[in-house]
Amino acid sequence: MTPNAITTADDLSLMPTRRQLLGKASTGIGSIALASILNKGAGATRANDTTPSISSSISPFPNFAPKAKRVIYLFQSGAPSQYELLDHKPILAEQHGQSLPGSFFQGQRQTGMTAGQKNKQVCKSIFRFSRNGQAGAEISELLPHLAKVSDDICIVRSVQTDAINHDPAITFFQTGFQQPGRPSLGAWVSYGLGSDNANLPGFVVMISQGSAKRDSQALYARLWGSGFVPSAHQGVKFRANGDPVLYLNNPAGISTKRRRKILDLTQALNQQHYRDVGDPETLTRIRQAELAYRMQMAVPGLVDTRDEPEHTFDLYGESAKRPGTYAANCLLARRLAERGVRFIQLYHRGWDQHGDLPRDLPLQCQDVDQASAALISDLKQRGMLDETLVIWGGEFGRTVYAQGNLNLKKYGRDHHPRCFSIWMAGGGIKAGHTHGKTDEYGFNVAESPVPVHDLHATILHCLGINHEQLTYKFQGRDYRLTDVHGHVIENILA
Questions:
Q1: Exposure letters 311-350 (e unless 16+ CB within 10 A, then b)
Q2: Of 32, 166, 384, 456, which has the fewest Cβ atoms less than 10 A away?
Q3: C-alpha dihedral over 455, 457, 459, 460, to 10 degrees?
Q4: For residues 56 and 469, is the Cβ–Cβ distance under 8 A?
Q5: Using CA atoms, how far apart are residues 397 and 417, in angstroms rounded to an integer?
Q6: 18-60 pLDDT, tens per residue?
Q7: How large is the angle between the packed helices 256-277 and 27-38, nearest 10 degrees?
Q8: What's the whole-model pTM score?
Q9: Is the pLDDT assigned to residue 148 strictly greater than 60?
Q10: Strand locations in 354-396, DSSP E?
């Protein structure tokens, strides 16, 4: 036998892991799943029907009647300032320029960028606020389009997080844990509910670059990864340039018929490998290869928005015609929602205004304001808003004091995790409502705090999932998105 000739017995001896042992024990279940995957006439598949269970028994999801069928998460990477956008603090104008004593901070952690700054001066916002809609929501002049749909959204002003730096803070929002390695929110939703469209992924990700001049924070693929749940549930990134999805199209010289033959041969080998080894990830490979084949037909028509009427582009803005812009991604998010994609995540970069906030923040708002409001209006007029949960916000807030010298032409704000604002709309959320309050300086939560785990529990609740029951057993422990925390925020539910 040559050194490279490894037999099935050798393969098994090299992989005597607990996962393989449990996988082989569940071969009967896996065979049923395998047949389901390979049934090209089958409809939508559920996550926990297409992989052999290696976790404790999971109750069927949804646990109860859901208000939302899907989620569109508009994540603003870099952390927008609540003082300039959604949390008006008139006292800052009165106290502008006043130095904050050390006792003001009550020992709260500060970043290395301002912890040693001796003179921390109160900084007012240079932007005006007004009351809007029947509910009278206070919204900044930087968000005029959002103000027009204020009666359709719920502003949450009392969100708080444990992380003070970007990467752990974004990781915490996306996975429920500050350290990498856990499944993302979208992966958990895909795992629990599966997809409503067998020709598209259950979880799609798009990224846009903001117009701010400052360098943006990095976004790593692990933020939409599957962690330790089957990798079929990781987010699929749609690109703005070239092929929308990498490696989706046939290589040069390979016809569709030949591609099908190659795929059939590969799948037959994978089937045999699964029967011999029992590794659940083999089922994922089979499933993803079949999905990729079907996506070859579904994706081109999805991303080609030329069939949209002109009034749609009037609604979203002219930039919606340029692939990769935030507006174009919002329009694609609506098209994905129409086609049954379960979780759609948009990342918009460039919100980290440590300096030059008067220049950069308006640019960022011009990127997102019209398109975000358009998405709300578009979903509503199509009768989809009530069953689509839309979320807008970043990873933490900004400080009440200016970073560095106080200069209203160039001021900036440092990171602040103790309280900040987001907005939500649609499936299961109370419209025209403002939840939570911060103190007069916007430095601490004064009423109805919303920790990240509570926000996650509420998102799952809107989808009909009891967050305590959506678990996955890994390394001997039952894990969940909310860890051992989380309470549904009843006061924001419709």
A1: eebebbbebbeebbbbbbbbbbbbbbbebbbbbbbbbbbb
A2: 32
A3: 170
A4: no
A5: 6
A6: 444 444 444 443 443 444 444 443 333 333 333 333 333 344 8
A7: 170
A8: 0.86
A9: yes
A10: 388-393
Residue type, 135: A
Give the per-residue pLDDT at 50. Answer: 35
In three-state secondary structure terms, 72 is: strand
Residue with tokens 């199509």: 382
What percentage of the chain exceeds 70 in pLDDT? 88
* Ranges assigned E (strand) in 303-430: 343-349, 388-393, 397-402, 413-416, 420-426
At residue 266, φ and ψ (nearest 5 deg) are -60, -45
- pLDDT, one tens digit per residue, over 233-244 is 999 999 988 778
Angle at CA 146, nearest 5°, toward 202 and 344? Answer: 5
Q: Report the top-level CATH class of 61-255+305-492.
A: alpha beta
Phi, psi of 470 (to 5 degrees): -85, 95
Strand, helix or coil for residue 253:
coil
* Helix (H) / strand (E) containing 147: helix 144-148
- The pair of structure tokens assigned to 467 is 């967050």
User: Of 165-169, 216-220, 361-365, 391-395, which range is least confident?
Assistant: 216-220
What are the extents of the domains in the chain? Answer: 61-255+305-492
- The residues pairing with 346 across neighbouring beta strands, listed in sequence order, are 74, 206
Distance CA 308, CA 38 (A): 34
95, 401 Cβ separation under 8 angstroms = no
Amino acid at 469: Q
Q: What is the pLDDT of residues 475-485, one digit of tens each?
A: 999 999 999 99
Tokens, residue 406: 């106080």
- Eight-class DSSP state of 385: G
Q: State the virtual CA torsion across 479, 483, 489, 494 in degrees, nearest 10.
A: -20
The two tokens of residue 100 are 């904050």
